[in-house]
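Batch job 17 of 40 flagged for manual review because the log was empty.
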Amino acid sequence: MPMTAGAGRKFRRMTVYGMQKHESENTRSTRRLKEICRLLQSGKFEETLELLAGVKGPEKSEEITQEPLYRSALFWKGTMDAAAAMERYAESEFLVAQWDEFASSPDAAALPERASYALREYVYTTALHGYLELYNLSGIDDGAVLSRMGRIYQGLGDYERAIQSYALAHKRAKDDPRVMARLADCYGMSGETRAAKLLFREAFFIDPRACAPEKCESPFIVELLERLRAEGVPEDEAAWWLPVYAAVLGVFNVKRELKPVEIGRLTQSIRELEAVADAGGVAGNGLSGRDKALLLNRYFWLADHYAGLKASQEDLAAVLEKIKALDTKIYERYTY
């Protein structure tokens, strides 16, 4: 039946009212979240809990206590109460450890992004005060403290200060793969791709596990992890296979000349892994997936060394044959 003019006007009024009501509810929700974020960023957890409880009203108090935002605020209120009795440096260590635990929880995953950042900013900034106090009082470039400061700055998105802190820590511990990987990640997020690739390549060579690629933000590391998943690489082996695929795909293409002592260590490491592989009877059969990836990566380093020195073709060909015997598919990609 055709709608009359009067009915049409009534329908339009109802539609407009419904839209206005929906917009009003959205506006209130946005304002409420903004206020909650402001409170979290200031560490006012008691006020946050009161605000969240007031939204539902006393008759729904049990319902609100089950919401991730409420539980998160309650967790951090208790955490900050416990931290208040600690010395500043101990407090900083405690807060960072608690953040790591919290960040892996279902409640943290369910938080709105704005709320998560506001909470992290408060926790990290509070922890930073203790580290800065110790650093300034000590009067020396303590690598451990500098590394922790770098992590805080990185978590706050201040990559310039993070790079400064990690770079100083790296001078104190040249071969620490954790520091190298974090410094590389900050370079990657700052657009300094060459420095990032060089340091990542070095760090993954020393200890893939310590690099914790799943925590890296650099786009090319994220893309490599996605590629590994697509290739069916087990998650618990991803850190070991990442530098292999980075070499095959030409991602880790920034390299340096090895020192004589490093060449000795490289060849010794290769011999040890080859001995394990030979114990299996067939090429590579004695190796775990992780060790196989380690050996492939070391072969790549040796091949790069020979190529950089313009060594005889026989030396390079011998390394390529070893790669082929260990993994034909990787060899075909590497030499394509």
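Reviewer: the log was empty due to a logging misconfiguration, but the result itself is present. The chain has 18 helices and no strands. Unflagging and moving on to job 18.
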